[in-house]
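Researcher: Let's do a round of design. I'm pasting the structure tokens now; please hold your answer until I've finished.
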């Protein structure tokens, strides 16, 4: 059993923390909205802390799942940040999708303070978090992974150590680039099938057994056909992630013309009122 602090109890963080508690770890939680932390403790045990530093003090591991680079910097390096309270020999695991720059910065800070850090963004969405079936892509040293992996096994279906610090975040960018392209293809395919007056269920049955098969096709085609989008991974968050990928592409020289185009398509859906809808709402910009 480990003593664990979990910072950030959103739609991903709350179930991840629950899996850690269910695995027998002693969990202390912090959330910017204190009522949410209190509700989590009431439902799952453990205790809540008033600040990230209080949550992190004397813990074996500190995990974060917050919103963006600024949020992560605040809860780690801010005046009441976790890093100022973490003990030597502990491990920091970040599940936020952020820039590779801040991942490398936090790894350097951790090393200077005598503990380890892993950047570990996840894929699998809210359902993956709820069911403990996330895919986790990790950046950090082998020593950091040895400390982090036993904890992550409580809520992961797949854990892959990609490379050094920042490699987890850049791999998450790869993931989001690929998803965006697939969703644009599925959107156009669906509208083409509708224009052809085909039976959409039979089309899905036919093409999901061949080379066109993908998670997005199988899981989102039925809901896209029904114009159901009020669930899942919000377009606002996808645009944040694609922005990170486009910025990294500017730095590493990778050309991302399709990603840039689909990012603008998502901007159109935001203007249509779809900012909090699932990423599959990309199809809304294509007329029936």
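Researcher: That's everything. Go ahead.
Model: Designed sequence:
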């Amino acid at each position: 059993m480990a003593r664990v602090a979990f910072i950030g109890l959103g739609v991903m963080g709350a179930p991840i923390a629950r899996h850690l508690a269910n695995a027998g770890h002693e969990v202390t939680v912090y959330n910017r909205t204190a009522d949410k932390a209190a509700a989590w403790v009431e439902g799952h045990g453990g205790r809540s802390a008033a600040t990230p530093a209080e949550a992190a003090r004397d813990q074996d591991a500190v995990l974060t799942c917050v919103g963006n680079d600024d949020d992560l910097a605040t809860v780690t390096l801010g005046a009441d940040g976790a890093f100022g309270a973490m003990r030597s020999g502990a491990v920091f695991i970040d599940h936020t999708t952020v820039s590779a720059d801040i991942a490398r910065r936090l790894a350097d800070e951790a090393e200077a303070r005598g503990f380890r850090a892993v950047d570990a963004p996840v894929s699998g969405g809210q359902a993956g978090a709820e069911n403990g079936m996330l895919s986790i892509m990790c950046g950090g040293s082998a020593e950091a992974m040895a400390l982090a992996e036993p904890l992550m096994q409580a809520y992961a279906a797949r854990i892959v150590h990609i490379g050094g610090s920042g490699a987890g975040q850049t791999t998450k960018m790869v993931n989001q680039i690929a998803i965006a392209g697939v969703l644009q293809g599925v959107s156009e395919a669906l509208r083409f099938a509708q224009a052809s007056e085909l039976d959409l269920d039979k089309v899905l049955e036919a093409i999901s057994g061949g080379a066109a098969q993908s998670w997005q096709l199988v899981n989102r085609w039925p809901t896209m056909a029904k114009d159901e989008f009020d669930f899942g991974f919000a377009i606002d968050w996808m645009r944040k992630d694609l922005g990170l990928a486009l910025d990294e592409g500017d730095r590493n020289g990778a050309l991302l013309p399709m990603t840039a185009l689909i990012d603008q398509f998502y901007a159109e859906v935001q203007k249509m009122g779809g900012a909090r809808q699932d990423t599959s709402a990309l199809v809304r910009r294509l007329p029936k």
